Amino acid sequence: MSLTDILSRIRAAEVESGRATGSVDLIAVSKVQPLERVEAVLQEGHRVFGENYVQEAASKWPGFRDRFDGVQLHMIGPLQTNKAKLAMELFDAIHTVDRPSLAEKLARLAEASGKCPDLYVQVNTGEEPQKAGILPKDADAFIADCRRLGLPLSGLMCIPPESEAPGPHFALLAAVAERNGLNGLSMGMSADFESAIAAGATHVRVGSAIFGARDYSAR
Ligand SMILES: *Cc1c(COP(=O)(O)O)cnc(C)c1O
Questions:
Q1: Least confident of 54-58, 61-65, 214-218
Q2: What domains can you pick out in the chain, each with its CATH number?
């Protein structure tokens, strides 16, 4: 696969699902990938990237931002509260607002700095104990709390359980977003982004299908 292949599959899925052309943004997930692979995708003209680790993003992206205009960086990994300040400086969007302590910290930092990235609430649609995210039953109250804190919520994010069909999880996330008046839906990865687009995804997060398999041993 390549960037071009993935973009054409996204455009085809938009048509297939009766979605407007260009209504789905591709976040190219570059975590753990060698710099030369990321640079190749930048050279092809892509500008929207996702990272999971604050430290890795801090070492990689300021340099790329100096050389490439218009980079948009999305934080898609779990965010420790003590890294929130650095994350707010590095990222244009944070997809993993998943607990009250983090929401409160982001609100304090936003007030102090006068700016805040676009925020997405992560929902643990599969109610998996090891996975981050607000439980579906708590989502409405948490979204209301975030709004009371003045946080700029753009939408919701989920990572369906690996062992289940993703469709019902995407539909659940879309329903929670709809009843809370949120437009953004960050859902769908290499294996299932077309089904996420059918369910209304506005942002798909695709890594290995663009860059190849991640080699964690090379880090
Ligand atoms: C790594 C990661 C992705 C990309 O996964 P691929 O299967 O490589 O497409 C997407 N979303 C999140 C939250 C991730 O951690």
A1: 214-218
A2: 3-211 (3.20.20.10)
